[in-house]
Amino acid sequence: MAPRIGVVVFPGTNCEHDVVQAVETAGGSGTLLWHGDAQLGAVDAVVLPGGFAHGDYLRPGALARFSPVMDAVATFARAGGPVVGICNGFQVLTEAGLLPGALQKNGRLRFLCEPARLVVTSTSSVLTSGSAVGDELVIPINHFSGNYTCDDATLRRLQAEDRVVLRYADNPNGSVDAVAGIANEAGNVVGLMPHPERASHALLGSTDGLVLLRALVGAATTYAAA
Amino acid sequence: MKFRARVEVQLRTGIADPEGATIERALPALGFGSVAHVRAGRSFSFEVDAPDEGAARTTASELADRLLANPVIEESRLELEAL
Questions:
Q1: Domain total for chain A?
Q2: What digits encode the pLDDT tens for the residues A109-168?
Q3: Cβ contacts (< 8 Å) between B9 and chain A: which residues?
Q4: First-to-last CA distance in chain A?
Q5: Fewer CB within 10 Å of terminal CB in chain A, N or C?
Q6: pTM value surpassing 0.90
Q7: Burial class (CB in 10 A: 0-12, 13-18, 19+), B57
């Protein structure tokens, strides 16, 4: 049976259906989860998709972290369940403290909506386990606050622990160390600004996102069996 | 007692502030060439019901740290006045 990937919908989320379709292309079974529910139900992985959760008021992700579903997501993550935050979902994960650092406004205050060239820099995460270090992927970005920042000690730790999983080849938003995606210590929680679901069909111009989503579906299968 | 709290949130020193920098770049064209080191921020105000000023300060600063500011990149300053 295909593993069930729960895709969380906050008020203002707008990529949930794209993510469901893409994880199904990648071999999973997608199901929508409502942010106001304190339970995740029977899912084998969770995706926090892109959009503008709670209108992005205050700061992107700042209010979403108080949604009832987030306690369940944190519990699921602590138990080793695969959790991926895409774009706004990455912002939510940092605000919720499930990933370190913060996403601030892009350098030069530019809203960026373009294909980004990414380099896989670690394969020890649920999203990059199907890739090889050095693989180049072209996946779209679409954000105003994607400029990853953290203090020096945190950055050194991320580097030493092989937790920077994706870097930009051209660093369009000014992120520290060209960070496009990071993982937690165990590699089961990943946040990235690029949108893999928007690179999941040849008609979209790239299928590179499927490489990442297939790895996630694989991790969900492993988690379901454990 | 009721207190009015005003919380000012700014990016920490050393964190790039593209908004402040963009405002600053516009200043010479407006004739404000003598102005420098612009930092952008936000301000919040709210009322706190508390037995005394110390308790109001504790509540307001906890709110500032847990929600209004992201301590990873921002710092906050709190002012209180009794109403």
A1: 1
A2: 899 999 999 999 999 999 999 999 999 999 999 999 999 999 999 999 999 999 999 999
A3: none
A4: 15
A5: N
A6: yes
A7: middle
Interface residue of B9, B73, B74, B75 to substitute, partner A, most A CBs within 10 Å? B73
Question: Within 10 Å of residue A26's Cβ, how many Cβ atoms?
Answer: 24
| ipTM rounded to 2 decimals | 0.82
* Sign of the torsion angle spanned by Cα atoms A41, A86, A130, A200: positive
CATH number for the domain that contains residue B14: 3.30.1280.10
Chain A hits for B16, CB-CB cut-off 8 Å, are 104, 107, 147, 149, 174
Backbone phi, then psi, for A198, in 5-degree steps? -90, 10
Nearest to B68 by CA among B5, B21, B23, B17: B5
Q: Does B1 touch chain A if contact means CB atoms closer than 8 Å?
A: no
Contact B13, B43 (CB under 8 A): no
- CATH at residue A35: 3.40.50.880
Domains of chain B: total: 1
Contact A150 B72 (CB under 8 A): yes
Q: Is A15 a catalytic residue?
A: no
Which burial class, exposed, middle or buried, applies to B31 when counting CB atoms under 10 A from its CB (0-12, 13-18, 19+)? exposed
B48 within 8 A of B81, measured Cβ to Cβ? no
Q: What is the pLDDT of residues A69-95, one digit of tens each?
A: 999 999 999 999 999 999 999 999 999
The domain of A47 spans 4-225
Contact B47, B5 (CB under 8 A): yes
Judge whether A208 and A138 are in contact, CB under 8 Å: yes
E-strand spans in A53-152?
Answer: 83-86, 102-104, 112-120, 136-143, 147-149
Q: Vertex A54, ends A51 and A59: CA angle to 5°?
A: 85
Determine which one of A16, A54, A87, A143 is catalytic: A87
Query: Residue B24 belongs to what domain range?
Result: 2-82
